[in-house]
UniProtKB/TrEMBL annotation:
Gene Ontology terms for molecular function: oxidoreductase activity, acting on the CH-OH group of donors, NAD or NADP as acceptor
Organism, scientific name: Chrysophaeum taylorii
The protein's name: NAD(P)-binding protein
Keyword hit for Plastid: no
Keyword annotations from UniProtKB, A to Z: Oxidoreductase
Residue stretches in coiled coil: none
InterPro entries xrefs: NAD(P)-bd_dom_sf (IPR036291), Sc_DH/Rdtase_CS (IPR020904), SDR_fam (IPR002347)
PANTHER family: ALCOHOL DEHYDROGENASE
This protein's record includes keyword Oxidoreductase: yes
Length: 258
């Protein structure tokens, strides 16, 4: 495997779910971490826990709203010098808001999903890929979804954003083909995180129903995949990992037991 110890990894959406779990795995590998999300308290808690477990860990919290794309563009200039040269960008921050038929889409939610899942990822990629190309090493890891490979009823906007992530990731790989920079998409099915709580406005019953009678993927499962793609030998570029829970074979094809 590729030794990425000492590499700087920037993870958006590190305050929960996949991002939180991935931060632990990269810390374990001796990477420097830049943690991005809106909830400052969560980022600081994660940074403190990591630094308690790994005494040599180097962690920087950069609390911001990724929809504020000006802040993303200026991040390389705002980060402390030891964290400013990002080698691995994990574009993970994302969300779904609601599950409604197209005629009921709420414009404010549409814009939030498009900005969070798509625009911010595109801007972050432009912002950090330049340095990766110049330094001759780097990896852009975009968290897509099975919703980026199939579209399902009442998920029009979320599916559109994740299809955009799939397409953008492929196009970025074409653009960077002559460089050592790798571009990867990770496309999970149902994973139990705060995702459904956010989607259903903190309705715990609705969120729990998504994962009921199903052994869903966990954040750790996805962190494994993120670290797996990042540590392949430099000549190996994983394009996409599409991964379902064993009892899910499609967005709406789920075998629930019990
Ligand atoms: P969580 O809700 O647990 O985590 C989402 C993360 O995104 C949080 O850290 C949140 O931080 C951050 N985030 C959301 N909006 C913003 C924003 N405007 N600015 C900065 N950070 C933001 O969900 P997951 O871990 O499951 O989701 C991570 C990614 O995985 C998303 O892109 C999601 O679409 C995708 N995904 C999830 C699946 C699932 O079933 N769970 C399956 C397939 C893909 P904060 O609120 O502190 O800002
Ligand atoms: C999250 C999984 O099936 O709700 O991306 O789209 S799903």
């Amino acid at each position: 495997p590729l030794d990425i110890s000492g590499w700087t990894v920037l993870i958006t959406g590190a305050s929960s779910g996949f991002g939180w779990a991935a931060a632990w795995r990269f810390a374990e590998l001796g990477c420097k971490l830049v943690l991005v999300a809106r909830r400052t308290d969560r980022l600081r808690e994660l940074a403190a826990e990591i630094c308690t477990k790994y005494k040599e860990a180097r962690v920087h919290c950069a609390p911001l709203d990724v929809c504020d794309v000006d802040k993303i563009e200026s991040l390389p200039f705002m980060l402390p010098p030891e964290f400013a040269q990002v080698d691995i960008l994990v574009n993970n921050a994302g969300l779904a808001l609601g599950k409604l038929p197209v005629q009921d889409n709420v414009t404010a939610n549409v814009l939030t999903m498009m900005q969070t899942n798509v625009s911010s990822l595109i801007v972050a990629t432009a912002t950090f890929s330049k340095g990766m190309v110049a330094r001759g090493r780097g990896h852009i890891i975009n968290i897509g979804s099975i919703a980026g490979h199939e579209a399902y009823a009442n998920g029009s906007v979320y599916c559109a954003t994740k299809h955009a992530v799939t397409a953008f990731t492929t196009a970025a790989r074409h653009d960077l083909v002559g460089t050592p920079v790798r571009v990867t998409c990770i496309s999970p099915g149902f994973a139990e995180t705060e995702f459904s709580l956010v989607r259903f406005g903190n309705d715990t019953d609705k969120a729990a129903a998504v994962y009921s009678n199903l052994v869903s993927l966990s954040a750790k499962d996805i962190a494994d995949q993120i670290v797996y793609v990042a540590t392949r030998p430099a000549h190996v570029q994983i394009a996409d990992i599409i991964c379902w829970p064993t009892n899910q074979a499609g967005a709406t094809n789920i075998a629930r037991v019990g």
